Sequence to fold (421 residues):
Amino acid sequence: MRTETKCLHSGYQPKNGEPLAMPIYQSTTYTYDSTDDIGKLFDLAADGHMYSRISNPSVAMVEEKLADLEGGVGALCTSSGQMANLIAVMNIASGGDNVIVDSTIYGGTINLFGVTLERYGVHTTFVDLSLPDEEIQKHIDDRTKAILGETIANPALDVMDIERIANLAHRNGIPLIVDNTFATPFLCRPFEFGADIITHSTTKYLDGHAIQVGGVIIDSGNFDWTNGKFPGLVEPDASYHGVAYVRDFGKAAYITKARVQLMRDLGAYPQAMTAFLLNLGIESLHVRMERHCRNAERVAEYLAAHEKVESVNYPYLKDNRFYPLAQKYLPNGCSGVISFCIKGGKENAVRFMDSLKLAVNVVHVAAARTMVLHPASATHRQLTDEQLVAAGISPGMIRFSVGIENIDDILEDIEQALASV
Ligand SMILES: *Cc1c(COP(=O)(O)O)cnc(C)c1O
Fold:
């Protein structure tokens, strides 16, 4: 199956007489004939669901669909995108270890790693991953466990050179984790360029309708965890009577450990109903993404030609510094998200935003409706001025998330709002 077909058919194929729509198994637990059957589940010696903090049949269907869309061996859904990135890193890094994270990454991820995880002893070094290899290499030491960045950074819109960064990571014996939220597997499949682990905030385009908060971790199955740097995946797990993940689960070692160890303990698993809603969104992902991209290309061109606009950041504009990388990694479009600055700084940015009639002013991005946000006073409010600059955000910058409405209505709305500035 190709991507568009997978969006509809992966994960659940009803048999004779079964419901066409994915069923919602809203149950905390599952019944078995004997205590021995349940004992085997606790030893990880048999497949099956036991408790919905660890797995659930409805969520499992969406996990299979997402793994299939990205070309991975397995997936673990989480209660948010934040939880996906946290578990993705916690699964391989412990106190005293460090990770390299792109400095233009989403503001929430900067807080999560730079402030919160730091308190628990895992250090994050923020590095601009668009710098040459030598500059990034300087920050890697023998306690570095991963490199993490976004395919298209939110909201700086830097495009990662996935192949180059994956090679750099592999030369150091560590995996590359790619947050593929803005691209979605419809626009880019990072495993094809050497990434090892993919995360998503499914809250964004995958859901597409702003109705559920969720995340996912997907394992390519390609990384060799036996190189001595990842004892947690190789040595026996005391909390499972000596299960050794690589020995017992092979290519699915990483994603199995994330589920049976961290998800078991942290309990940040989505509900069946949430999985149903997410699945419904994914069914139309390909159609929506195409419209988001075509509409955003028109908006970017319109803004770039407007006298009241100081600068437009959209990787498909030919003078954008990420244009060549966007052509390579995002041949079908580079999402609906644009950032731009209006002449006159923050004051005019706020006036423009408050004058919009169709575009909604919300703390959200990457969904069907056209949405607008001022990062410096919202999602990136906790960042210092220095961090704002590093994250590619200026005080007057507007993040414009182009929806799938009629393009003429979107452009007319922008035009009338710019007229008020
Ligand atoms: C929104 C977002 C997150 C966080 O996801 P939540 O679902 O809000 O927890 C992580 N990464 C990126 C790129 C995002 O846009």
